[in-house]
Amino acid sequence: MPAKGKHRRTKTQRLTRTLAVAGTGGAALALPLLGAAGAHAAPAQSASAQSAAVKDAQTYTVRAGDSLAKIADAEDVSGGWKKLYEDNRDAVGDDPSLIRPGLKLTIGGKAAASADSAADTADTAGAAEKKTAQPASDTADSSAGFVAPVDGGTVGTPYHQSGGMWSSGYHTGTDFVVPTGTSLKAVGAGTVVTAGWGGAYGNQVVIKLADGTYAQYAHLSSLSVSSGDSVTAGQQVGLSGATGNVTGPHLHFEIRTTPDYGSDIDPLAYLRSKGVSV
Predict the structure, then answer these.
(1) Is 143 a domain residue?
(2) 47 assigned to some structural domain
(3) What pTM did the predictor assign?
(4) Which residues contact 37 (CB under 8 A, 6 or more apart)?
(5) Which of 5, 25, 103, 151 could form a disulfide with 62 if both were Cys (CB 3.0 to 4.6 A apart)?
(6) Whose CA is closest to 206, among 138, 263, 157, 121?
C-alpha cells in the first residue's frame, strides 16, 4: 500500500535525501562546515605548542652594564651565571666576563643552530667586515677623546725599570704618585672587564678600550665601576690608594694587548700616540 510504504520511510533516509537534494542545487553547506571545523582545530593546537616552546627558551639581548651574573639573577636562571654561560658559550666565547651590548643570549635552554642564529652570525660578520673596511680617516678618529688616567701627580717608577721585586724582572707599568683618594679616569671609551681584588695589584680595574687594547688601574682604595659597565673617556673608575703590594699610595697604570699579565706595552708612549700630554 503506498500510504503504508510512505509511513515506513525512516528519518535518516529523509535527511540523506534532503542533503542529496541540497547538494544537487550547489548549496551543500553541511560537508564544507564539517571540513572547516577540522581545518581550524589543527592550527589552534599548533599555536599552543609554539607558545609552550617560547616559554621553554627565550632570547635576551645584552644591554650596557650587563654581566652574566646580573642577567642570571634577573631572569631567575636555574644554575646561575655558570649555566647561562654553558648554554651560550658559542656566542659569548672563552671569557664569560666579556659580553657586548647587542649580544643575544638564550635563556632557559641551550642555544641551538638555526636560521635566525645563522643570520645573526652573518650580520655580525658583515658588521666586522664593514669596520675593517673603514677609511683611514675613520681610524684616525679612534684616537680622539683620550685623556690622562689621573690629573696632576708625578711619574714615579717608570715602565720597564728592572728589579727583583717584580716577577717579570721589570716594572710592567708606570706609577703616578698621587695621594689616596685621587680620582682615576678612564683614558678612553670602553668596557670594564675586571673590577675587584687582583692579588699583588690590590683593588684593580681593567678596561677594554675601543681600539682593542686594555688599560689597567691598580692599588685602588675604592672602585666606582663594575665588570660589564660601559665607560666614557674621563669617567671616574675609582680612587687611588695603597692596596696590594705597595710601599705607598700611587696609581700603577698599564696598557696591555690582552687582559692578562705579561702583555704590557709602554703606557706613556701609547697615551702620547693618542694625543695625550703626559
Answers:
(1) no
(2) no
(3) 0.49
(4) none
(5) 103
(6) 263
